[in-house]
Structures are given as C-alpha cells and as structure tokens.
C-alpha cells in the first residue's frame, strides 16, 4: 500500500492501515446483501473503518465497537 501510494498516515508498520478511498469502500460494503441482512454490526476502532461506522449508524440494528484498553 505504501509503495502504491494508497496508504494514509505514513508508515504502515505495526498498525492497521488507513487507506485512500476508504469512504468509497464503506459505501460499497453497505450496499452488499450480507450487510443489509445483518442483525448486528461489529466494528473496530481502526481509522480506515471510520467512514463505515458513520454509514452504519442505524437505531434499529445493534452496533458493537471495541475500544482499546
């Protein structure tokens, strides 16, 4: 990702990378049938999943989000 210029935020060593077009990826995910049929949504606190968390907010579906200690 670094070599291809797709990473955001410098080095990717020892972390889950943020990437360019993560909002477009999140938009694609929420249009999948498996996403629409899910009864619970789980997210990680990764920066790359921030757009997905924003798009996922739905008061009718439980949403779990792990927080680091």
Describe the model.
There is one protein chain. By secondary structure, the protein is α+β, with helices and mostly antiparallel strands. The protein has a domain at 22-69. The protein has helices at residues 22-30, 33-37, 50-56, and strands at 7-8, 18-19, 41-43, 63-65. The strands form two sheets. It has a two-stranded antiparallel sheet. Helix 3 links the parallel strand 3 and strand 4. Helix 1 runs parallel beside helix 3. The radius of gyration is 13 Å and the shape is globular. The mean pLDDT is 79.
Give a short summary of the structure.
The chain is of the alpha+beta class and 69 residues long. It has helices at 22-30, 33-37, 50-56; strands spanning 7-8, 18-19, 41-43, 63-65.
- Low-pLDDT runs of 5+ residues are none
Shape: globular
Structural class: alpha+beta
Compute the number of strand runs.
Answer: 4
Largest sheet: 2 strands, antiparallel
| Rg calculated over all Cα atoms | 13 Å
Supply database-style keywords.
single chain, two-stranded parallel sheet, alpha+beta, two-stranded antiparallel sheet, 3 helices, 69 residues, 14% strand
What is the fold's blueprint, element by element?
Layout lengths: L6 E2 L9 E2 L2 H9 L2 H5 L3 E3 L6 H7 L6 E3 L4
């Amino acid at each position: 990702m670094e070599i291809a210029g797709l990473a955001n935020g410098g080095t990717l060593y020892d972390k889950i990378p943020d990437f360019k077009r993560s909002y477009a990826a999140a938009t694609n995910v929420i249009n999948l049938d498996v996403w629409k049929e899910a009864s619970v949504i789980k997210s990680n606190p990764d920066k790359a999943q921030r757009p997905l968390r924003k798009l996922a907010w739905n008061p009718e579906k439980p949403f779990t989000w792990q927080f680091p200690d």
